[in-house]
Design a protein that fits this description.
Strand content: 15-25%
Shape: globular
Order of helices and strands: HEEHHEEHHHHHEH
Oligomer: single chain
Distance between the termini: 58 Å
Largest sheet: 5 strands, mixed
Radius of gyration: 20 Å
Strand order of the largest sheet: 1-5-2-4-3
Number of strands: 5
Structural class: alpha+beta
Low-confidence stretches: none
Number of helices: 9
Mean pLDDT: 94
């Protein structure tokens, strides 16, 4: 602490920039296309998620693990292992202060991008059904395992504590978060899934395509 004080004692106080709340008025699917002469086409399917303070954010995190995190996720198994549509296929969640997103990414052969998008949509629709207990247990174990591994790194722990203190003015311990994860049920997952995965989908594509019309049809 003394060493830090020695470095920052000369700093002057300033006024933080004001926080600007998120504004999201989109109610219909949107396609964004960027034409590039690439050998591989890249696409992201995204939908509106949950904020970092939303009470259902941990259920959404578990749904994301099952959908697209790791080599045993549904997206990886279906798009890559079973059908050979993509080398990399995964999903990720972003939690911001008052908003969030869930995004699916895949890099595919341009000739097979329609099949890949359709299959990704099928996986999204499949998430609305009750997740088997065995799949949820595996997702919980994976999430808690990664959480515990973070505690072995000083930088990760500093980020863990500092982010919570700065944004939420309270700090949950690793044990408290693990307890929240253990309390997630298949019923709660189904409720959140039918809310989140029923929202309008948006698609961004980078690849050797001139018209977005073919992709707009995929979202209908």
């Amino acid at each position: 602490v003394d060493a830090v004080h020695a470095e920052v004692r000369g700093w002057t106080s300033g006024t933080p920039r004001p926080w600007i709340p998120s504004k999201s008025g989109r109610t219909q699917p949107v396609v964004a296309l960027e034409h590039r002469k690439t050998e591989q086409a890249h696409f992201c399917l995204a939908l509106k998620g949950l904020s970092s303070t939303h009470p259902d954010r941990y259920e959404l995190d578990m749904l994301n693990v099952i959908l697209g995190e790791g080599m045993s996720s549904r997206l990886f198994l279906e798009l890559r292992e079973k059908h050979g549509l993509a080398y990399d296929a995964h999903s990720a969640v972003s939690h911001f202060l008052d908003d969030g997103a869930l995004t699916i990414y895949a890099g595919v052969d341009p000739a097979r991008i329609k099949d890949a998008v359709k299959m990704a949509r099928q996986q999204i629709d499949g998430m609305k059904m009750r997740v088997p207990d065995s799949e949820l247990d595996k997702a919980k174990a994976m999430t808690k395992g990664r959480l515990l591994l973070r505690t072995e790194d000083s930088r990760s722990m500093a980020g863990w504590v500092g982010t919570q203190e700065l944004l939420f003015h309270e700090v949950k311990t690793v044990d408290q978060v693990a307890e929240i994860i253990d309390g997630i049920t298949t019923e709660g997952m189904e409720r959140v899934a039918n809310d989140i995965f029923g929202r309008p989908l948006h698609l961004a594509v980078v690849g050797p395509f001139r018209s977005a019309l073919r992709f707009e049809r995929l979202l209908k």
